[in-house]
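In the previous chapter we treated chains in isolation. Here, by contrast, the input contains two separate entities that must be folded as one system, with a combined length of 802 residues.
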Amino acid sequence: MTRKQKRLAVIGGLGAVVALATTLILLALRDQIVFFYSPSEIQAKAVAVGVPIRLGGLVKEGSWIRDGETNDFVVTDGATELATRFQGILPDLFTEGQGVVVEGALTSAGTFAATNVLAKHDENYMPKEVVEALKANGEWQREAGG
Amino acid sequence: MAIELGHFALILAFAIATASAMLGLWAWRQGDRVGLMLRQGALLQFLLVAAAFAALIQAFVVSDFSLAIAWQHSHSAQPLLFKITSVWGNHEGSMVLWILILVGMGAAVAMFGSNLPRDLLALVLGAQSLLVAAFTGFTLFTSNPFARLSPVPFEGQELNPILQDVGLAVHPPLLYAGYVGFSVCFSFAIAALISGRIDAAWARWVRPWTLVSWVFLTLGIAMGSYWAYYELGWGGWWFWDPVENASFMPWLAATALLHSALVMEKRNALKIWTIFLAIITFSLSLLGTFMVRSGVLTSVHTFASDPTRGLVILALLAAFIGGAFALFAFRASALRAGGLFAPISREGALILNNLFLATATAAVLTGTLYPILLEALTGRTISVGAPFFTLTFGAIMAPLLIVLPFGPFLAWKRGDLIAVTQRLAGAAGATIFVTILVFALSGASVSLAPVGLLLGFWVGFGAIAELIDKAGFGRMSLGLSLRRLAGLPRTAFSTALAHFGVGVSVIGIVAATAWQAELVTTMQVGESREIGGYTVTLDDVSERQGENFGAETARFTVTTPGGGLRMLAPERRLYPASQTPTTEAAIETYGLSQLYLQLGESNPDGSHVIRAWFKPYVTLIWLGAVLMAGAGVLSLTDRRLRIGAPRPAARTAPAE
C-alpha cells in the first residue's frame, strides 16, 4: 500500500466506527428515552398501556394506603388524578402533599404500575418537571417548593 | 473578625491572580524575573486561599451562625466532622474548596516546575492564574461565602442529613482534586498553543499531572459510587444521573489523554489530538462542576440555584471552553503534525483506544445534554435513563475490551498481529475455561452475562499474560524469568495492573447485575427469610438516640451458608432539626459479596417492611477502580516519569 492508500484506510476505518456509534446512539435515543407526563397529559394524549413513562405530580392528601410492601397512592396535578401502585420501600421523603416523580407504565385497568419512585433529596427540592406540570394547571404556589 | 480576614484574603488572592494572569500571558517572553514573580504569586495565591478556607472552617467549628452559610448548612449539635464537612456541603463553600485545589495545583507547578523552560512556565502559571481570577471573582461577586447575618440567628438549620456521612469528607475533595488537576493539563495546552512549541518533552511534563488528577478522579468517582450505594438505600451503585455522567465524561477523556500522551512521548505523533484532549478533559471537568449549579439540569446533586448565578456560570464556561477552542482553531495548524504509522502497531492500538473512549464520551454527553436540547427546542420533557446508556456505552466499550489485551503486546511502529495472537492464546484459553466453569457452577443463564464475563476475564487474564510474556516465563529458566520480572520498569507493572483493574470492575459489574437476589417483604419480630443462601432473622426493633437524631433500629441475625452468625442493624433515622428522615442500610461483606438490608416503615400489626439484596462479587466493582488508581500511583513513582526528571540538555537554565 502506498502512503496515501494507507492514510485512506485509516481514515475509512475511523469513519466507520464513528458512523456505527452515531447510528447506535440515534437508534437508542429513539427507543430508550422516557417521556414525562402529568396525569392530565396521560388522559389527553391516550398514552399506550405498558410503555415506560415518567409520571409527575403531587401525592394527593389522604390517598396513601400501605399494606405491607404494597403502596397505593394517587398522583394528582389538580385537574386529573391517577391511582398508582408501588411495591417496595418508598424514598424517605415521600409524603402526602409533596411532589413526586414515578417511573412505570399504565396498566390495562387504567391505573399506574410504578417500578421506581424517585426520591427528592431535600425538602426544598421539587422536580422541575413537576413544577412545570403544576404551573400548567394553575396549581403552583410559590411556597410549595422552590 | 476571622471571617473578615478570610474574606480579605480571598479578595487579595483574586487581585494577585488577576495580576499574575496578565503578567504571565502578556510578558511570558520576558525571562527570569517574570518567572520568579509568577512563581511567588502562585504560592501567595495558595496561602491566601488556604487562609480564607481556614477562616470558614473555624466559623463552622465554633458554630458562628453570623456566617450566612454556616447558619444555612450547619447546626451546633452536629458532630465535629460533619461541622467541618458542612463547609463544602453547599454551593458557596464548595467553590472555596474548588479554588483552594486550583491554587494548590498552581503552587505545585511553581514548586516542581523550576526546570521547565521559563517561557512555558510563565504561560502555564499565567493561564492557571486566569482560571483562579475568573472563579474567585465569580465566588466573590455572585456567591460570597463570607456574607454575614444580622441579627445573628440562635441556631443553624443543619446540613442535609443525607450528607451527614464520612462520604462527604472524602468524596468531594477527591473528585475536585481530580477535576481541578486537569486545569494544569489545560494550562499546559494553552501554553503550547500560544508559544507554538510542542514536542515529546511537553508530553512528559504533562503526564504526571494527568496521572495525579486521573488517580484522584478515579478514586473520587469510585467513592461517590460506593457512597450512593450505601447511603441512598436503592442498592444501586450507578444511576446514570446527569452529575455522575458529568464526572464520568472527564474520566473517559482523561483516560484517552493518558494513552495519547504516551504516543506523543514515544513517537512524537498525535500532538494536535493530545492538545485537543487536554482542553476537552478540563472543559468536561468544568461542565461537571458547574452544569448542575447553573440550574440547567436538576439532579441529586443540585444545590439551590439562583438564575443570575446560572447565567454567570454559563458565560464563564462559554468563555473558557469557547476561548480555548478558538485558540486551538487558530493555532493548531501552527503545530507540526507527526508522521503516519502502520495501523497494526502499539500506537495504532492506542489510537483505537482513543477513538473508542472519545466515542463513548460523546455518547454519554449526548445522553446527558439531549433532554435539555429537546426541551429547549420542542418544549417536550423527557428523560434519558439507564437503558440508553447501557445500550450505547456497552456497545462501544465491548470492542474496546476485546482489543485491549492486544495493545501492550504490539511493538511500536510495526506490530505482528499473528504473533501477538499466539502469545495471547493462553489467556484466551483461560478466559473460556473460567467462564464455562462459572456458568457450570452457578447454573444461571442471564442473556448478556456470559458475554460480559468473557470480556472481563479476557481483559484480566490478558493483563497477567502480558507480565508473564514480558518476563519470559516458559521461554527461559524460572530464575531468569523472575529476575527479568523484577527488572521490568514500573510502568510495565502499572499498565498490567490498570488493565487488570478494568477486568476486575467488569467482572464485578456483570456478576452483581446478573446474580443479584432481591427481596421485599414484611417481617414480624422472630421471623426468618432466606436470600441468596443466607437466612435473615429479625430479632428485635428498638429506639435509640444519636448525637443529633433519633433512630429506630432493627437487629437481624444472619446465618451464612457456612453456618456462621453475623449481626446486622439497619436504621431509620429522624433528624429533628430539619425534620428529615433518612434510612441507613446495613451492609455486611462476605468475601467479595455483600448482603444489604434496609428497614422500611412499620405496619399497624407491628410487622416491618424489609428490603434485602444479596449482591455477589459487588465489591469487585470498586476494587477494580482502586487497582486502577493504584496503577496510576505506581506509574508516578517510575523514575522516568518523575516530575521534572526529563531535562533536555539545551534548556536546563534554572529559573533563577
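The two ends of chain A are 65 Å apart (CA to CA). Chain A has two domains: 1-33, 36-140. Compare these points with the single-chain example from earlier in the chapter.
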